[in-house]
Amino acid sequence: MGFEGKVAIVSGSASGMGQQTARRLAERGAAIVLNDIDATKLQSAVAEFRNSGWSVIGSTADISNRAEVDQMVKEAIDAFGRIDILVNNAGMERAGALRKLSEADWDSTINVNLKGAFLCAQAVHGHMVGKKYGRVINISSRAWLGGPGQAPYSSAKAGLVGLTRTLALELGRNGITVNCVAPGLIHTPMWDQLPEKDKIYLRSKIPTQELGDADDVANAVLFFADEAAGFISGQVLYVCGGRSLFAG
Protein backbone atom coordinates (compact mmCIF):
# COMPACT_ATOMS: atom_id res chain seq x y z
CA MET A 1 0.00 0.00 0.00
CA GLY A 2 1.83 3.08 -1.24
CA PHE A 3 0.84 6.62 -2.15
CA GLU A 4 3.93 7.91 -3.93
CA GLY A 5 3.01 10.76 -6.26
CA LYS A 6 -0.42 11.19 -4.68
CA VAL A 7 -1.67 14.36 -2.95
CA ALA A 8 -4.08 14.20 -0.02
CA ILE A 9 -6.13 16.87 1.75
CA VAL A 10 -7.10 15.88 5.29
CA SER A 11 -9.44 18.29 7.05
CA GLY A 12 -9.22 18.74 10.80
CA SER A 13 -5.73 17.26 10.81
CA ALA A 14 -3.71 19.32 13.27
CA SER A 15 -4.29 16.68 15.93
CA GLY A 16 -6.07 13.43 16.76
CA MET A 17 -7.43 11.01 14.17
CA GLY A 18 -6.94 13.48 11.34
CA GLN A 19 -3.27 14.02 12.06
CA GLN A 20 -2.62 10.31 12.47
CA THR A 21 -4.35 9.61 9.15
CA ALA A 22 -2.26 12.30 7.46
CA ARG A 23 0.88 10.89 9.05
CA ARG A 24 0.20 7.38 7.74
CA LEU A 25 -0.45 8.73 4.24
CA ALA A 26 2.77 10.77 4.37
CA GLU A 27 4.79 7.78 5.58
CA ARG A 28 3.66 5.96 2.46
CA GLY A 29 4.70 8.73 0.11
CA ALA A 30 1.73 11.10 -0.22
CA ALA A 31 2.13 14.87 -0.22
CA ILE A 32 -0.18 16.29 2.44
CA VAL A 33 -2.38 19.33 2.90
CA LEU A 34 -3.00 19.66 6.63
CA ASN A 35 -6.06 21.69 7.60
CA ASP A 36 -7.33 23.09 10.87
CA ILE A 37 -8.86 26.30 12.19
CA ASP A 38 -6.45 26.25 15.14
CA ALA A 39 -3.47 28.07 13.61
CA THR A 40 -1.10 27.28 16.50
CA LYS A 41 -1.75 23.53 16.40
CA LEU A 42 -1.58 23.56 12.62
CA GLN A 43 1.78 25.31 12.57
CA SER A 44 3.16 22.75 15.01
CA ALA A 45 1.85 19.83 12.94
CA VAL A 46 3.29 21.23 9.70
CA ALA A 47 6.67 21.67 11.39
CA GLU A 48 6.58 18.08 12.64
CA PHE A 49 5.80 16.75 9.17
CA ARG A 50 8.55 18.82 7.57
CA ASN A 51 11.04 17.66 10.18
CA SER A 52 10.16 14.10 9.14
CA GLY A 53 11.05 14.96 5.56
CA TRP A 54 7.49 14.83 4.24
CA SER A 55 5.97 17.13 1.62
CA VAL A 56 3.34 19.21 3.39
CA ILE A 57 1.56 22.55 3.46
CA GLY A 58 -0.93 23.85 6.00
CA SER A 59 -4.25 25.65 5.55
CA THR A 60 -6.32 27.32 8.28
CA ALA A 61 -9.45 27.25 6.12
CA ASP A 62 -12.82 27.12 7.87
CA ILE A 63 -14.34 24.22 5.94
CA SER A 64 -17.86 25.57 6.46
CA ASN A 65 -16.91 28.64 4.39
CA ARG A 66 -16.92 28.15 0.61
CA ALA A 67 -14.40 30.89 -0.15
CA GLU A 68 -11.90 29.52 2.36
CA VAL A 69 -12.32 25.96 1.07
CA ASP A 70 -11.78 27.13 -2.50
CA GLN A 71 -8.62 28.95 -1.39
CA MET A 72 -7.33 25.83 0.37
CA VAL A 73 -7.80 23.78 -2.80
CA LYS A 74 -6.08 26.49 -4.87
CA GLU A 75 -3.13 26.41 -2.49
CA ALA A 76 -2.96 22.63 -2.83
CA ILE A 77 -2.93 22.83 -6.62
CA ASP A 78 -0.36 25.63 -6.59
CA ALA A 79 1.91 23.62 -4.31
CA PHE A 80 1.51 20.11 -5.70
CA GLY A 81 -0.34 20.36 -9.02
CA ARG A 82 -3.02 17.79 -8.26
CA ILE A 83 -5.42 16.37 -5.67
CA ASP A 84 -5.96 12.63 -5.49
CA ILE A 85 -7.36 11.99 -2.02
CA LEU A 86 -9.78 13.94 0.16
CA VAL A 87 -10.38 12.89 3.75
CA ASN A 88 -13.31 14.77 5.26
CA ASN A 89 -12.29 14.31 8.87
CA ALA A 90 -13.07 17.66 10.53
CA GLY A 91 -15.92 17.45 12.99
CA MET A 92 -17.38 18.76 16.21
CA GLU A 93 -20.30 17.99 18.51
CA ARG A 94 -22.84 19.90 20.53
CA ALA A 95 -24.61 17.40 22.76
CA GLY A 96 -27.59 17.66 25.08
CA ALA A 97 -31.22 16.82 25.58
CA LEU A 98 -33.50 18.03 22.79
CA ARG A 99 -35.17 20.66 24.96
CA LYS A 100 -31.80 22.15 25.92
CA LEU A 101 -30.16 22.34 22.49
CA SER A 102 -30.08 25.72 20.78
CA GLU A 103 -30.43 26.60 17.13
CA ALA A 104 -26.77 27.60 17.21
CA ASP A 105 -25.85 24.12 18.48
CA TRP A 106 -27.65 22.60 15.53
CA ASP A 107 -26.24 25.01 12.94
CA SER A 108 -22.61 24.75 14.01
CA THR A 109 -22.70 20.95 14.17
CA ILE A 110 -24.33 20.58 10.75
CA ASN A 111 -22.08 23.23 9.19
CA VAL A 112 -18.81 21.64 10.24
CA ASN A 113 -19.67 17.94 9.96
CA LEU A 114 -21.89 17.92 6.88
CA LYS A 115 -21.73 21.21 4.98
CA GLY A 116 -17.95 21.22 5.29
CA ALA A 117 -17.66 17.78 3.70
CA PHE A 118 -19.99 18.86 0.89
CA LEU A 119 -17.98 22.02 0.18
CA CYS A 120 -14.66 20.18 0.21
CA ALA A 121 -15.94 17.45 -2.10
CA GLN A 122 -17.39 20.04 -4.45
CA ALA A 123 -14.12 22.01 -4.49
CA VAL A 124 -11.88 19.04 -5.36
CA HIS A 125 -14.14 17.07 -7.65
CA GLY A 126 -13.27 19.00 -10.81
CA HIS A 127 -9.57 18.27 -10.29
CA MET A 128 -10.33 14.57 -9.79
CA VAL A 129 -12.72 14.37 -12.75
CA GLY A 130 -10.08 15.91 -14.98
CA LYS A 131 -7.72 13.00 -14.19
CA LYS A 132 -10.49 10.35 -14.07
CA TYR A 133 -9.22 9.39 -10.63
CA GLY A 134 -10.01 10.23 -7.03
CA ARG A 135 -10.61 8.90 -3.55
CA VAL A 136 -13.02 10.66 -1.19
CA ILE A 137 -13.29 9.27 2.34
CA ASN A 138 -15.83 10.78 4.73
CA ILE A 139 -15.43 10.27 8.47
CA SER A 140 -18.90 9.65 9.85
CA SER A 141 -19.53 7.97 13.22
CA ARG A 142 -21.31 4.99 14.66
CA ALA A 143 -23.53 7.70 16.16
CA TRP A 144 -25.29 8.10 12.80
CA LEU A 145 -27.37 5.12 13.94
CA GLY A 146 -28.71 7.29 16.74
CA GLY A 147 -27.79 8.15 20.30
CA PRO A 148 -29.55 9.95 23.18
CA GLY A 149 -28.48 13.59 23.45
CA GLN A 150 -26.89 13.55 20.00
CA ALA A 151 -29.62 15.00 17.78
CA PRO A 152 -27.40 17.45 15.83
CA TYR A 153 -24.37 15.16 15.71
CA SER A 154 -26.24 11.99 14.76
CA SER A 155 -28.16 13.90 12.11
CA ALA A 156 -24.99 15.38 10.63
CA LYS A 157 -23.20 12.03 10.59
CA ALA A 158 -26.24 10.34 9.05
CA GLY A 159 -26.16 13.05 6.40
CA LEU A 160 -22.54 12.13 5.68
CA VAL A 161 -23.60 8.56 4.97
CA GLY A 162 -26.24 9.84 2.55
CA LEU A 163 -23.72 12.17 0.93
CA THR A 164 -21.28 9.28 0.55
CA ARG A 165 -23.82 7.07 -1.21
CA THR A 166 -25.00 9.87 -3.48
CA LEU A 167 -21.52 10.96 -4.55
CA ALA A 168 -20.50 7.35 -5.14
CA LEU A 169 -23.37 7.05 -7.63
CA GLU A 170 -22.69 10.42 -9.21
CA LEU A 171 -18.91 10.29 -9.54
CA GLY A 172 -18.19 6.61 -10.15
CA ARG A 173 -18.06 6.95 -13.93
CA ASN A 174 -15.26 9.48 -13.48
CA GLY A 175 -12.99 7.03 -11.66
CA ILE A 176 -13.78 8.52 -8.25
CA THR A 177 -14.70 6.30 -5.33
CA VAL A 178 -16.49 7.71 -2.28
CA ASN A 179 -16.59 5.77 0.97
CA CYS A 180 -17.27 6.33 4.63
CA VAL A 181 -15.47 5.32 7.84
CA ALA A 182 -17.67 5.25 10.94
CA PRO A 183 -15.62 5.14 14.17
CA GLY A 184 -16.99 4.23 17.55
CA LEU A 185 -15.30 5.09 20.83
CA ILE A 186 -11.71 6.09 20.14
CA HIS A 187 -9.13 6.71 22.87
CA THR A 188 -8.60 10.47 22.94
CA PRO A 189 -7.67 13.00 25.66
CA MET A 190 -11.41 13.61 26.12
CA TRP A 191 -11.82 9.96 27.15
CA ASP A 192 -9.16 10.32 29.84
CA GLN A 193 -11.14 13.17 31.41
CA LEU A 194 -14.35 11.14 31.84
CA PRO A 195 -15.41 9.89 35.29
CA GLU A 196 -14.58 6.23 35.86
CA LYS A 197 -18.26 5.26 36.11
CA ASP A 198 -18.88 6.69 32.64
CA LYS A 199 -15.90 4.78 31.24
CA ILE A 200 -17.22 1.53 32.70
CA TYR A 201 -20.69 2.13 31.25
CA LEU A 202 -19.40 3.03 27.79
CA ARG A 203 -17.03 0.07 27.65
CA SER A 204 -19.92 -2.22 28.55
CA LYS A 205 -21.62 -1.19 25.30
CA ILE A 206 -18.70 -2.39 23.16
CA PRO A 207 -18.69 -6.12 22.31
CA THR A 208 -14.88 -6.23 22.36
CA GLN A 209 -14.80 -4.23 25.63
CA GLU A 210 -11.94 -2.21 24.16
CA LEU A 211 -11.56 1.31 22.78
CA GLY A 212 -10.12 1.98 19.38
CA ASP A 213 -7.21 4.31 18.73
CA ALA A 214 -6.35 6.79 16.01
CA ASP A 215 -4.42 4.17 14.03
CA ASP A 216 -7.51 1.98 13.77
CA VAL A 217 -9.28 4.82 11.96
CA ALA A 218 -6.22 5.72 9.87
CA ASN A 219 -5.87 2.13 8.68
CA ALA A 220 -9.47 2.09 7.48
CA VAL A 221 -8.95 5.35 5.60
CA LEU A 222 -5.79 4.02 3.95
CA PHE A 223 -7.69 0.95 2.80
CA PHE A 224 -10.27 3.07 0.97
CA ALA A 225 -7.62 5.48 -0.33
CA ASP A 226 -5.50 2.79 -1.97
CA GLU A 227 -5.55 2.32 -5.74
CA ALA A 228 -6.34 -1.35 -5.16
CA ALA A 229 -9.72 -0.39 -3.64
CA GLY A 230 -11.02 0.98 -6.93
CA PHE A 231 -14.02 -1.38 -7.08
CA ILE A 232 -15.23 -0.43 -3.60
CA SER A 233 -17.49 2.62 -3.43
CA GLY A 234 -20.50 3.88 -1.50
CA GLN A 235 -19.66 1.77 1.54
CA VAL A 236 -19.64 2.37 5.31
CA LEU A 237 -16.84 0.69 7.26
CA TYR A 238 -17.42 0.63 11.01
CA VAL A 239 -14.38 0.91 13.25
CA CYS A 240 -16.11 0.40 16.57
CA GLY A 241 -15.40 -2.98 18.11
CA GLY A 242 -18.84 -4.23 17.10
CA ARG A 243 -20.73 -1.31 18.67
CA SER A 244 -22.60 -0.71 15.40
CA LEU A 245 -24.55 -3.95 15.88
CA PHE A 246 -27.05 -2.00 17.96
CA ALA A 247 -28.03 1.65 18.32
CA GLY A 248 -28.55 3.84 21.38
Question: Could you walk me through the main structural features you see in this protein, from its secondary elements to its overall organization?
Answer:
There is one protein chain. By secondary structure, this protein is an alpha/beta fold. It has a single domain, classed as NAD(P)-binding Rossmann-like Domain (Rossmann fold). Helix content is 46%, strand content 14%. The chain contains 8 helices and 7 strands, in the order E-H-E-H-E-H-E-H-E-H-E-H-H-H-E. Strands 3-2-1-4-5-6-7 form a 7-stranded parallel sheet, sandwiched between helices. Helix 2 (39-51) links the parallel strand 2 and strand 3. It is globular and about 50 Å long.
Keywords:
248 residues, alpha/beta, Rossmann fold, seven-stranded parallel sheet, 8 helices, 46% helix, globular
Outline the secondary-structure elements.
Elements: E1 7-10, H1 16-27, E2 31-35, H2 39-51, E3 56-59, H3 66-80, E4 85-88, H4 103-131, E5 134-139, H5 151-171, E6 176-183, H6 189-192, H7 196-204, H8 214-225, E7 236-239
Parallel strand pairs: 1-2, 1-4, 2-3, 4-5, 5-6, 6-7
Helix pairs in contact: 1-8, 3-4, 4-5
Give the strand order, joined by hyphens, for the main sheet. Answer: 3-2-1-4-5-6-7
Main sheet specs: 7 strands, parallel
CATH architecture annotation: 3-Layer(aba) Sandwich
Mean pLDDT comes to 93
Secondary structure category? alpha/beta
What name does the CATH topology carry?
Answer: Rossmann fold
Q: Counting H and I runs of at least 4 residues, what is the number of helices?
A: 8
Low-confidence stretches: none
Approximate shape: globular
Q: State the CATH class.
A: Alpha Beta
Question: Considering DSSP H and I runs of 4 or more, what fraction of the residues is helical?
Answer: 40-55%
Count of discrete domains: 1
Beta-strand level of the residues, as a percent range? 5-15%
Return the string of H and E elements: EHEHEHEHEHEHHHE
* Distance, first to last CA: 36 Å
> What's the number of extended β-strand segments?
7
CATH superfamily: NAD(P)-binding Rossmann-like Domain
Could you tell me the radius of gyration in angstroms?
A: 17 Å
